[in-house]
Design brief:
With 63 residues, this protein is an all-alpha fold. It is built from three helices and no strands. The radius of gyration is 19 Å and the shape is elongated.
Length: 63
């Protein structure tokens, strides 16, 4: 605790949190689990970008 005390105090003073980073990481890990593996790293990267890009991937039928 003594070793990290300055960083802990600084985080408390600035009200900093790594909660957002942890949430993003958890979502990526969940995607990885659900996908049961991707064929390559590029496909996994693309899936992450689509997921976090908030794109609407539903088919819209034109009339």
């Amino acid at each position: 605790m003594k070793k990290h005390l300055p960083a802990i105090l600084n985080a408390m003073r600035l009200k900093a949190s790594n909660g957002l980073a942890e949430a993003i990481n958890a979502k990526i890990q969940y995607m990885k689990l659900r996908a049961k593996g991707f064929r390559n790293k590029q496909r996994f990267k693309t899936a992450i970008l689509f997921y976090f890009g908030g794109l609407d991937m539903t088919f819209h039928h034109e009339r």
